[in-house]
Write a structure and sequence with these properties.
heterodimer, A: alpha/beta, Rossmann fold, 2 domains, eight-stranded mixed sheet, four-stranded antiparallel sheet, globular, B: alpha/beta
Chain lengths: 349, 322
C-alpha cells in the first residue's frame, strides 16, 4: 500500500448474474485514489463507472452483482475481496453468514468514512421524512456517545449551513425543495461525518447548468476545506475539466486511459483512440467546425466476453491482434494507455 | 433575408392551476426561415417545450398566431388540420416513452404514411419504410424489432424517421439528444444536419445545452420564465451576449479546458422563480446582480439594440461594463 493512496483497487472484476445470463460489467481494473485528490471517472452509459464506485462502498445489487476477482483496500484495510466463484448462484448458509458479517462491518464505513452521492436527488431522499430527520439519522448512526437532542439539532443546522441552506427549512420535506437544493441536502448528508472518501455518482447530471455550476462550486469549496478525496463519476468532460486533478477513462468495463487531467485534455499527448473519439463527439463552445467527429457504432454487449480490446470493432486503427489479444496498460507520454499502439513507447506498467 | 417559413406572433399559453395562472409561454415572437434552424434555450420550466407543442397544435394556444407560409395554423380545421402535421412534425425528448412499445419499428415508421393525402399501397409503404430506415442509418435487420430491444440512439433514429416519413417542411426537435450519450449524441446531431442540408427543412431546436445549440442553429432565442429575453444570430449571441441571464448561462457551461479549473465559477444566485401570476417587470430581476428599481414595475419589451440582436433588459450589456 502506497502512503499517498487512500484507495487501491487491484484486478477488480464485477459480474452481474441476470436472467439473461452473465454481464461482465467491470473487467480487471486497477485504480488508485490518492489522498486529497479529485479523481474523475469518465465514460458512457454502461461503461462500468457506477459499478466501480458501488464495489468500493459494497453496494452492488444484492444476489445479482458479484465481485469475481480482485481486492479493494481502503487506508490499508481490505474492504472487499473476490467472492468464491463456486458459491455464486447457489444457496449456502456459510456464505450468507459471511455476507451478513460483512454488511455489519461495512456499516461502520458507510456514511462515516466513505460516503456516496447519487445521480437522482429525488429518489435518494426519503419522501416521508423531513430533511432534519434524515440528517439527524447520520449523526445518530455514527456517533460514539449518545447525543442530546439539542446537540443533534445544532449539528443538523451546521451541516445545512455548509451547503448554504437556511436552517429554517429543515422541517420541510424533500418535495418542498427544488432539484438543486435536494442535491445540496444529499451533499450535506454525505459530508456530515467528514468522510475521508466521497463517491459522487453523476451528482449534477439531473440539474440545470446554472444549478450545476452552483453545486460544483460548492463541492469544490467543501473538498478544499475538508480535504476529502473524491471519486467523481460523470459523462460530462466539461465537468471533469472543471473539477478533477486526475482522470480515468472507462470503456466497456476497462480503464483505457489514466493520467493527470491536464495531460488527458492535452491534444499534444498521445491518446487512446476511444478518448480521441470521445473528445471529437463533444460540441464545445470554443469549437468552430460545423461537423462533429463521432465514433461509429456502439459499445459492445456486456454479455459477451471479448478476447481482445473491447474498442477494436469501432477503432479506426485496429489490427487483427487487437481483436484477439488483450492489451496491457502501457505508458505513453505522461499517460497510461491500454492500447497496443503504445506498446513500444514506454514499456509495460 | 430569406423567406420566412414560420412566423410566431404574440404567442401566449397560460395554464390554469390550483394556485393561479401559470405563464408558460408569454408573448413570444420570432420567425424561422426556410432551411434554417432556430435554437431555443433555457432552463427546465422556462416554457420551451410548451412553446414547441403549442406551435404544432399538440396543445391549444391561449392567444397569438403561428403563421406557416403566411397562413395562421390556429385557423386550420378539418381536412386542413389533418394535413398540418404532414408539414409540421416533432421529435421528442425521451426516445423510449415517445414510441409505442407494442408497435414494431416498421409499424411505427409506417403509421404516418397511411395519413398522407396520396394513398400508398402496402408494398409502396414497406419500400418507403426501408428507405427511411436507410436515411436515418438504421440497419434493415431491425425492421421487425420492438423499441425495448433497441438502445436510446436507435430509438431516437426511429423517432426521426417517423417525423421525416411525411416529408415535413418544419420539425420541432424537443431536446432530441439530451437523453443520449455523447458519442451517440454526435451521431444524431450530424444526421439531423445532413438531413437538413439534403431536404432543406427548417428546425426549431429546443435544448438546455448551449454548446449543442451553437453547433446546430443559425439563430438563438434565450427563454426565461415564458419570455424571450434575448434573440440574435448564433455568432452574435456568443460573441456579444447582452442580457445578464444569457451571460450567466454561458458562464455556467463547463468547457473542455483544464486551465479554467481554478477560476471562481460565476454563479447566478438562487433558482428560477415561480411562473404563476408573475409580477410585471423583468422576471430575472430577483436573481440578477445588476437589478435596479428600473427593472421592476413595468414589462420590458424586446428591443433591437443592433441589427438582428434583440434583448429585453433595462441596461443591456451592463455585465461587461463592471
Amino acid at each position: 500500500m502506497n502512503e499517498n493512496n487512500i484507495v487501491e483497487i487491484r484486478n477488480l472484476s464485477v459480474n452481474y448474474e441476470t436472467d439473461d445470463g452473465t454481464l461482465y460489467a467491470v473487467n480487471d481494473i486497477n485504480l488508485d485514489i490518492r489522498r486529497g485528490e479529485v479523481l474523475g471517472l469518465v465514460g458512457e452509459t454502461g461503461a462500468g463507472k457506477s459499478t466501480t464506485a458501488r464495489s468500493i462502498i459494497q453496494l452492488l445489487p444484492d444476489r445479482v452483482g458479484h465481485m469475481t476477482s480482485g481486492t479493494i483496500t481502503f487506508e490499508g484495510e481490505t474492504l472487499a475481496k473476490a467472492e468464491n466463484k463456486s458459491r455464486i448462484g447457489t444457496f449456502d448458509i456459510a456464505a450468507k453468514r459471511e455476507k451478513e458479517k460483512n454488511e455489519a462491518r461495512m456499516r461502520a464505513y458507510r456514511g462515516e468514512r466513505i460516503s456516496m452521492i447519487f445521480q437522482d436527488p429525488m429518489s435518494s431522499l426519503n419522501p416521508v421524512l423531513t430533511i432534519s430527520d434524515q440528517l439527524a439519522e447520520v449523526f445518530l448512526m455514527h456517533s460514539e456517545e449518545r447525543l442530546s437532542k439539542a446537540e443533534i439539532d445544532r449539528k443538523v443546522d451546521e451541516a445545512l449551513r455548509l451547503v448554504n441552506i437556511s436552517a429554517e427549512r429543515k422541517y420541510e420535506y424533500p418535495h418542498q425543495f427544488s432539484g438543486g437544493m435536494k442535491q445540496r441536502v444529499c451533499i450535506a448528508m454525505a459530508l456530515a461525518c467528514k468522510p475521508e472518501l466521497l463517491l459522487a455518482d453523476e451528482p449534477t447530471t439531473a440539474l440545470d447548468v446554472t444549478i450545476q455550476a452552483q453545486v460544483l462550486q460548492l463541492m469544490k469549496n467543501l473538498q478544499k476545506e475538508l480535504g476529502t478525496s473524491v471519486l467523481l463519476i460523470t459523462h460530462d468532460l466539461g465537468v471533469v475539466a472543471e473539477m478533477c486533478n486526475r482522470v480515468a477513462v472507462m470503456y466497456a468495463g476497462e480503464i483505457i486511459e489514466l493520467g493527470d487531467a491536464d495531460d488527458v485534455f492535452d491534444e499534444n499527448q498521445p491518446h487512446h483512440p476511444y478518448t480521441v473519439g470521445l473528445f471529437g463527439s463533444v460540441p464545445d463552445l470554443n469549437m468552430s467546425s460545423r461537423r462533429l467527429k463521432p465514433i461509429d457504432g456502439l459499445m459492445p454487449d456486456p454479455a459477451i466476453k471479448l478476447p481482445g480490446c473491447p474498442f477494436a470493432d469501432r477503432c479506426p486503427k485496429a489490427t487483427d491482434r487487437c481483436r484477439n489479444e488483450r492489451p496491457a496498460a502501457y505508458k505513453a507520454g505522461k499517460l497510461q494507455l491500454k492500447c497496443f499502439l503504445f506498446e513500444n513507447e514506454g514499456g509495460e506498467q | 433575408m430569406g423567406q420566412p417559413m414560420i412566423e410566431v406572433k404574440h404567442l401566449k399559453k397560460y395554464f390554469n392551476t390550483r394556485y393561479g395562472l401559470l405563464h408558460a409561454v408569454d408573448d413570444i415572437n420570432f420567425t424561422i426561415e426556410k432551411g434554417k434552424t432556430l435554437g431555443v434555450v433555457g432552463e427546465s420550466g422556462c416554457g420551451k417545450s410548451t412553446l414547441g407543442r403549442v406551435m404544432i397544435r399538440l396543445i391549444p394556444q391561449t392567444s397569438g398566431e403561428v403563421l406557416f407560409n403566411g397562413e395562421n395554423v390556429f385557423d386550420y380545421q378539418g381536412e386542413k388540420l389533418r394535413d398540418l402535421h404532414n408539414n409540421m412534425q416533432m421529435v421528442f425528448q425521451d426516445p423510449y416513452s415517445s414510441l409505442d412499445p407494442r408497435m414494431s419499428v416498421s409499424q411505427i415508421i409506417e403509421e404516418p404514411l397511411t395519413h398522407l393525402e396520396r394513398k400508398m399501397s402496402a408494398a409502396e409503404r414497406a419500400a418507403e419504410v426501408r428507405k427511411l430506415m436507410d436515411t436515418v442509418g438504421l440497419a434493415q435487420r431491425f425492421v421487425n424489432a420492438y423499441p425495448h430491444e433497441l438502445d436510446g440512439g436507435r430509438c431516437q433514429r426511429i423517432g426521426i424517421a417517423r417525423a421525416l416519413a411525411v416529408k415535413p417542411k418544419f420539425i420541432v426537435c424537443d431536446e432530441p439528444v439530451s437523453a443520449l450519450d455523447v458519442s451517440i449524441q454526435a451521431q444524431i446531431l450530424n444526421l439531423m444536419m445532413d438531413l437538413q442540408e439534403e431536404m432543406g427543412h427548417s428546425y426549431m431546436f429546443i435544448t438546455h445545452d448551449l454548446s449543442v445549440v451553437k453547433y446546430v442553429s443559425q439563430d438563438i432565442a434565450v427563454m426565461y420564465l415564458g419570455q424571450c429575453v434575448e434573440k440574435a444570430s448564433t455568432e452574435e449571441l456568443f460573441a456579444r451576449p447582452l442580457h445578464p441571464y444569457t451571460k450567466a448561462l454561458l458562464a455556467a457551461i463547463p468547457v473542455l479546458d483544464t486551465s479554467r479549473r481554478n477560476r471562481e465559477i460565476e454563479i447566478i444566485k438562487g433558482e428560477v422563480t415561480s411562473p404563476i401570476n408573475p409580477k410585471p417587470g423583468c422576471r430575472f430581476a430577483s436573481r440578477c446582480p445588476y437589478a435596479g428599481p428600473e427593472c421592476t414595475g413595468e414589462n420590458l419589451p424586446l428591443t433591437e439594440v443592433s441589427p438582428g440582436h434583440f434583448v429585453a433588459c433595462a441596461h443591456p450589456g451592463i455585465a461587461d461594463q463592471k
